[in-house]
Each structure stands twice: as structure tokens, then as C-alpha cells.
Amino acid sequence: MHILLLEDDDEIAAWVRDGLARSGHVVDHFVNGRDALIAATTSDYDVLVLDRMTPGLDGLAVLRTLRAAKVITPVMLLTALSEVDHRVEGLEAGADDYLPKPFAFTELEARVAALGRRISRSRNAEITSLSDKGIQIDLLKQTCTRNGVQVDLNAKEFRLLETFMRAKGRILTRNMLLEKVWGLNFDPTTSVVETHVSRLRAKIEKPFGDTVIRTVRGAGYIFDPQ
Fold this sequence. Notes:
Arc Repressor Mutant, subunit A
């Protein structure tokens, strides 16, 4: 999974980040709420782990802003505040789970995995097709058409297009695509992303004379069918 971690304590952050990475997750770590909020609204995450008390914009404020913006990504709040009122406040603000400090890493890992499974089931149950700019993909039949014309995609190309369309308007980095489409952590030696993006573009753009997937120099790719 792709996980955002907001935690200003360096020791706790390293412990959580390294543990989740060893379990095969991709973790983006932020020490301030402002940067975490920007990332959470512009990138595609499976779970957000937010420390409730961070300098400046704290985790609770980040959560409230995300829910006001209709961002439904599951959120777990971490806090040293153990009072029931504080936990209730977080849950009422839209948190999906709440873990008081200190905590065992195994419990954190299990709860994060449960949140990831929950949103995965929800997405799969609610969405059976995606469409934009004449592109329509059937997630059950694994088929793709554009402007009524059948587009033959292999399994990875289909998954890549699905990932782009679900993240419309948000930049997807090479690492994010490796993790979501191929289930790989960062591998600096592979060009599999570049190769498959090029092949996908040749099938869904070239025959139709336009561009729907843009390269963002130094950042990644974005599905932006203007």
C-alpha cells in the first residue's frame, strides 16, 4: 500500500516508516501538516497515518480539512492524548481509527492493513467502470474502448490505465506506479514504467490524435484529459 505518515518525532517516524517499508509498503513521511495536506490532496494514498499533535497545522486540522474537501482516504490518528474526549473528537472529525501512544508496531501494522482492506472492498463494490474523454474501461470484464472503438490492452496496461483514471488530475510518481501496478518497491534499474506508459499512450492516444497522459518533468505522470 501507499501510506502517508505525518509525525514530527524523528525516532517514532523512523521506527514506523522502516517497519512499514519492511512489510512491503511505500511510505511518504512528513513532519508538518501543511506539506502532508498538500500531498494528501494531490497524490493517491491508501491510508493516512496522522500524528494528532504536530507544530503548526496539526493532524486533527489536516483531517478536518481533508474531510471538508471530500477526501475519503482512511485516516488513523496517533496521539499521546489518552482522554476519551480527545479520541471522540478525532473520530467525530472523520478519523477511521485512533491509536494512543505508546503503541506496539504490530498493532499499528494490523490496523493500517485493516483500513487498507476496508477501502479496497468499498472501491471494488461501488465502481465497476470508469470513463473519461471517450475512454471507457469495464473493471469486471477488463475491457477498454475509446469513442466506441475497442482498444486491446494487456493486463499491466489495463491496470496502468485504471490507476491513472482513478487518480485523475493527480501526479503519480514512478515509484507510486511501480507499487500500485507491479507491487514493487523502488527499483532504480528498471524502465518498466516508462516502457508501459509509452505502449499505453500508443494505443489510447496516437490513433485518436490527442494526449490524455502527460509527463510532468521531474515528478511523474498525470491523467489530465483537457
